[in-house]
Specification:
This protein is mainly alpha-helical. It is built from four helices and no strands. Helix 1 crosses helix 4. The longest helix is centred in the first third of the chain and has 18 residues, at 3-20. InterPro entries: DUF6401.
Length: 91
Amino acid sequence: MSEELSLLVRDIGDAGVAEMAGAPGLAAAVDQHVAAVRDRFGAHRPPQDALMDYLHGFAEDAFRRGWWPGSTRDWEFVHIVAVCWMMRENV
């Protein structure tokens, strides 16, 4: 992943995690994505390096498909926030 893409993903994660505090709907959506990521890995606490690799691959694919963060409610944004939250909270 390019440095620019890494920074953008980090910024999306930071903004989304901060927004969760005042947006119960976003927090609920993030919870659903966290559950899906856990199911994907078959682990309650996937390893940090596995989450980082997954996040990079997911973001690269999303950008290749033409996605660009424009809404804090779109699927890709929420998914990136969920993975970032998991890495921060180590859950």
